[in-house]
Inverse folding.
């Protein structure tokens, strides 16, 4: 279960990986990468299909990152998420954020079984500050409806 404490802990990490950065700037992985970078996070892009996107070095998997990261944001289809969380554990990454739409029950269970702090069912851009107006509004509405993690 996602808690506000796990969200705050994830967002407190200064260095993150983003698995699922796309060559398409309109895909969420690329948008999230740009937003998080603009908020001051040090990021590593992970995409096994290319070594560079818009001048940014991409790594084929989490084990190939040049240094440890505090967590990984996963923005891949659910059928690929389980492999990414396995790679995270192999790379010693203890915090995982499965962006809404990337989660799978098998990946969540794997993280729980391996003691990995896991966030799922939430949009990182609603919580990473400063949130854009649309994401602030979304967070406010979810708060009114009692849908925010406690």
């Amino acid at each position: 279960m996602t808690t506000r404490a796990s969200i705050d802990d994830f967002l407190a990490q200064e260095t993150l990986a983003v698995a699922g950065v796309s060559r398409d700037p309109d895909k969420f992985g690329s948008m999230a990468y740009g937003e998080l970078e603009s908020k001051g996070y040090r990021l590593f892009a992970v995409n096994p299909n290319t070594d560079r996107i818009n001048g940014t070095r991409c790594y084929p998997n989490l084990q190939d990152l040049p240094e440890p990261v505090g967590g990984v944001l996963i923005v891949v289809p659910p059928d690929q998420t389980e492999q990414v969380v396995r790679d995270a554990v192999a790379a010693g990454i203890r915090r995982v954020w499965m962006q809404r739409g990337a989660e799978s029950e098998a990946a969540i269970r794997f993280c729980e079984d391996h003691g990995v702090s896991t966030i799922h069912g939430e949009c990182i851009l609603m919580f990473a500050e400063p949130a854009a107006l649309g994401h602030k509004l979304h967070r406010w509405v979810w708060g009114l409806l009692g849908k925010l993690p406690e």
Q: What stands out?
A: The mean pLDDT is 95.
